[in-house]
Sequence to fold (135 residues):
Amino acid sequence: MAAFGDSGDNEAIADINVVPLVDIILVVLIIFMVTAPMFMKPTINVNLPKAASGDQTAPSKLNIALTADGRINLNGTFVDEEQVKAKALEEVAKNAEVQAIISADKDVPHGKVVGVLDVVKGSGVKKFAISIDKK
Fold:
């Protein structure tokens, strides 16, 4: 009790005050909780058709998603068919064996999916995969 009394001896205070450490840790935790949603990858809700058979595919530079309302999403941004064609040509120039992964909502008309496949294949992409949900 020499640290609290006025006994006159000059002993060093050997107790560690943990309260500031806990305060700092809580502030850091709050900062992480607030900023974590900013770093989450945004996704597009596509209701994929279900199939019993299917294989895993390697990640691709051409990820094309067709939403139920008919919009085309290329690698996270909404584009039109001309931009899909330009990106496909760019990727084929970098790598002739590039693969396109097409995710189409099950409510998208078949003709729209075929149209996007035609654009991709017309740009020189030789391989493509169609995403599904496993049954």
Remarks:
- The CA atoms of residues 26 and 80 lie 46 Å apart.
- The longest helix spans residues 19-39.
- The two ends are 70 Å apart (CA to CA).
- The mean pLDDT is 80.
